[in-house]
Every structure is written in structure tokens, then in C-alpha cells.
Amino acid sequence: MNRIRALLESEIPLVAVSFRDNDSERLAREAVAAGVDVAELRIDQYSNTTRDHVMDEVRTFQALPVLGTIRSRHEGGGWSGSETDRLALFQAVIPEVDAVDIELSSSEIRSDVIAAAKAHDRVVIVSHHDFDRTPALDALETIVNEAKDVGADIVKISAMAQSRRDVRTLASLTLKMAELGLIVISMGSVGMVGRVMFPALGSRLTFSFIGDRSAPGQLSFSETFHLMRKFYPEFNEQKIVSMQLLEDV
């Protein structure tokens, strides 16, 4: 069974770490030992995006459930190539990963990426990012519904929180639509609280970093891991079991 789909089907919150292509072998070993749930590979930020290099990087993380992301520059990513090349890279990566993230706004390649992912039984995350503000609740609901309509298994909403009201808006979205399958991120220093709080409301995944921060307001993995173990007993129990299994290997 698809590893990320199996994780998502549980009620236990999940922690992902975003990785680039620097010192990958060491970081992959550390991630396994530390209890990372999902490795998000930020392929758009790789120093080299040739197919052979990317596939080597993906295989380096094969011990973990892998989310492949090639983020559009229009939504804060580092991809500077053509959409044709981005699609080809997605199609090469999809058989080797557990899930992919494609932006709702990437209308030129979105349907082909989703079709390829579905054909390989991969989890499809359709995402929307706003690095300037948090849209109104009704606008966010429209985005979620549109993403589900185009074939999302999970909808990711990541928005800049400029006030506590913005955090409450994103919390309301999570409470109202979590059953559809959501990842909700409140970016920025004001939004940090949501990275630990929103899983309690139904957001399925929170993102952290080891090494370099990949988004505004992101907490380090060690801090996120500590807080998740403190506030989510089921998460803590799962990690105790996982650590015991690693010690027995």
C-alpha cells in the first residue's frame, strides 16, 4: 500500500521535513533516526535538476515516505524552467515517490500531473500558496472545492497570517472542511501557533525543517517534534514504538 496514504488514513498527526539536495545521504539517515514521518523533496530548489541527479536524490530517501514537490516560481518555488520540462520531471519522479504536490494555479500541466499520479496510485496534493495575506474564508472554501474537483486527494492551503484573525480564519477553514482532506499552514511569525495547533483541528500534515528553513515561520523539526509529542499523546505513543523498533534492528 502507498506509504503516505496509509499514514493519512490514521488520525495521528504527521510531521514532514523539507529537503534540498545538500548532504542528502547524511540527512536521510538522520531523518529516519529522528522519527520524520514524511520527507518532502523540494526538487524545485535543487542545485541540479537533471533527471539522473533528481532520481538519485529521490532514491536516497527511499527509507522514508516521500512527497515530491517541484514548486512553481509563481507560488514561491524555485523552478525556473519551462512547464514542459517540469511536467517531464514530475512524470519521471512519480513512480519513485509516494505523493506529489502540484499547485491549483498550474493549469498548463496540472491535469497531466494528476493523471500520472493516479495511474501509479500516488497521493495527489493540490496546493495553493499566498505569501502576502490570508484570503477570506469564503475564498478559501472556493479554492478547496476547486482543488477537490480537479482530483486532489488532499488540499494544501498555505497562507501568510498577518494577525490572529487570519489564524482564526485558517482554523475555521480547517474545522469546516477537514473531512475533505486538508493540510492547512499559517505562515509567518504570527502563524507559528497554527503549525502545532491545526493538526488538532484536522490538518493532516505539518511542515518543519532540518538545516535550512523553507517557509516563513516554519519551526525546526526538533522543536516541532517536541511540541507534537507533548500535545498529542497518540503521536508520542507511535514514536515510542517506532524508536523501540529502530533500536531492535
Overall description:
- The protein has 249 residues and is an alpha/beta fold.
- It has a single domain (3-248), classed as Aldolase class I (TIM Barrel).
- 45% of the residues lie in helices and 18% in strands.
- It contains ten helices and eight strands.
- It has helices spanning 3-8, 24-34, 51-60, 83-93, 110-119, 137-149, 164-177, 192-201, 221-231, 233-248, and strands at 14-19, 38-42, 66-69, 99-103, 123-130, 154-160, 182-187, 205-209.
- An eight-stranded parallel beta sheet has the order 7-6-5-4-3-2-1-8.
- It is globular, with a radius of gyration of 17 Å.
Summarize the structure.
The chain is α/β, with parallel strands linked by helices. It has helices spanning 3-8, 24-34, 51-60, 83-93, 110-119, 137-149, 164-177, 192-201, 221-231, 233-248; strands at 14-19, 38-42, 66-69, 99-103, 123-130, 154-160, 182-187, 205-209. The protein has 10 helices and 8 strands.
The average pLDDT score comes to 94
The backbone outline, from C-alpha atoms, is globular
Total domain count: 1
First and last CA, distance: 23 Å
Low-pLDDT residue intervals, each spanning 5 or more residues: none
Defining key terms:
249 residues, eight-stranded parallel β-sheet, TIM Barrel, alpha/beta, 18% strand
Helix and strand topology:
Layout: H1 3-8, E1 14-19, H2 24-34, E2 38-42, H3 51-60, E3 66-69, H4 83-93, E4 99-103, H5 110-119, E5 123-130, H6 137-149, E6 154-160, H7 164-177, E7 182-187, H8 192-201, E8 205-209, H9 221-231, H10 233-248
Parallel strand pairs: 1-2, 1-8, 2-3, 3-4, 4-5, 5-6, 6-7
